[in-house]
Amino acid sequence: MTPQLLTILVLAAMxxxxxxxxxNIGALAFVAAFLVGTLALSMEAGEILGGFPADLFLTLVGVxxxxxxxxxxxxxxxxxxxxxxxxxxRVVAIPWVMFGITALLTAVGALSPAAVxxxxxxxxxxxxxxxxxPLMMGMMVIHGAQGGGFSPASVYGVTVNTIVxxxxxxxxxxxxFLGSLVFNLAIAFVLFIALGGHRLVGVRVERSEREAVAxxxxxxxxxxxxxxxxxxxxxxxxxxxxxxxxxxxxxxxxxxxxxxxxxxxxxxxxxxGFGLNVGFVAMTVTVVLALISPQAQKNAISQISxxxxxxxxxxxxFVGVMESAGTIEYVGLAAAGLGAALLVALVLCYIGGxxxxxxxxxxxxxxxxxxxxxxxxxxxxxxxxxxxxxxVASTIVDVSPFSTNGALVLANATGVEPERFYxxxxxxSAIVVVLGPLVAWGVLVVPGLL
Length: 450
Prior knowledge:
Largest sheet: 2 strands, antiparallel
Distance between the termini: 41 Å
Strand order of the largest sheet: 1-2
Number of helices: 22
Helix content: 55-70%
Number of strands: 2
């Protein structure tokens, strides 16, 4: 058996084992890198570790550490309260506000499941209270998370941009980010119309309910949570005395929260505007915030998503071994041998989409994009189009109930029949898996050859 075929079989076996058993695929990848590198390729430990993505490790730790502090000191809650105030009583705006919140959270460094875990309970509580389709609301949250998920400061974005840069491909990070954002926005718009979002135009929230939501009391529970027609300006219960308004007043913004918001802004300006290393900037901002408010950073390190860090660094270390074995070039030449560049790109999109519906999207990105590099270097199709299409196809399928994001929406739905809601999510995710990669390929790849 050739080394190239061996590494491919080992890669497939890792995904199978990680699916059947609760073992982090990153840990499996480190073991596979060690065994295959040592026994099959006679590599020294230092050579194997040469594939360890140190820059990516620093970025992942830095941005997730920063987000943990933002969550601890209430800055995330502050952002949610500010966003819900923007609704201004207009129920039709609530799904889009939830889309925007999750997009913002992932864009500044939150992991997609973390953002969905924070926003989904609030969003689905709104859906139950104001008679919004829970499937529409839950999927808007997930697509928002994926829409912001490829910013240069995000986990997905850093992963893809690192692989692209290391392989000499000319794909601008902002193009990747905007491509994913626009694609998910388009899906969200179709979903919004198809599931009756347009019928919410003109429906408003009572003023007293709006004040409670702004103070963080919206969502589940609460009596009298019905929507009223436009023109219900809040007489009666909404304006009866000042007690409700005072009790529902949002807490004052603290200095450490302002500092956190400024730190997130500084990260974006310095990393995007001046091209400074995202990991070093994120870690610097995090340490400054920890010095300003030591209590807020308490237990923050334990909240860093170490399983994700292990997954990504392990996968990319094994990819380094695959490169040493010549597997990447081997697969690229085999794909090119098919003679149809568009067909190869479509197959790669479907591989990413189908597998990612059941496995880790980050792991899939770490595996499929390197395999596409030799094929892309031949210049038959647009590298930018294929990379963005792969990124989109591998992440929009996270609406699946078998993924973490889909499971979070399923678990947090209120006022629904669980089995029926599960079937609705399953049908929607099947549509996305079947059509998503095809549409991404048709919109992002095909025009490059026309």
